[in-house]
Amino acid sequence: MSEKEERIRPDWDEYFMEMAEIAMKRSTCIRRQVGAIIVRDKRIMATGYNGVPTGLQHCVERGCLREQLKVPSGKHHELCRGLHAEQNAIIQAAYLGQSIAGGTLYCTNQPCVICAKMIINAGLKRIVIQDGYSDDLAQEMLKEAGLTVERLERSSRR
Q1: 35, 83, 103, 148: least CB-packed within 10 angstroms?
Q2: pTM attached to this predicted model
Q3: Does the pLDDT of residue 5 top 80, yes or no?
Q4: Residues with catalytic annotation?
């Protein structure tokens, strides 16, 4: 970097979303990789990525149940051996005894309706997403619960 080039510092949302992208790299899902970070008071409380429960054989080794059953994306979430990134982050916070009430969830994908219900009951107040498919029921429930959902566009500064 030359003296004239100025270092571009990411804002907080960009910073935490980049961390969610790093968490996403740990995903063991064959179909979709998702990462999540839960933040409160600008401190990371928990992280998550989508994959099977601890100690179970990963889908990359065993095969994808959803592919075998030809389940379309966004449908029948219960027909999967894995947990979603948002679920794993909420579970990690509980496991570690971290209060996430009032916090923000940064997620590389829009939460599904199952995750939306968990997010509401966990007391999170804001969700920042990057991509994802639309889940109308999830959006309706999050709105009714008063949660703010914001889409963070990939920065052109990278």
Answers
A1: 148
A2: 0.90
A3: no
A4: 86
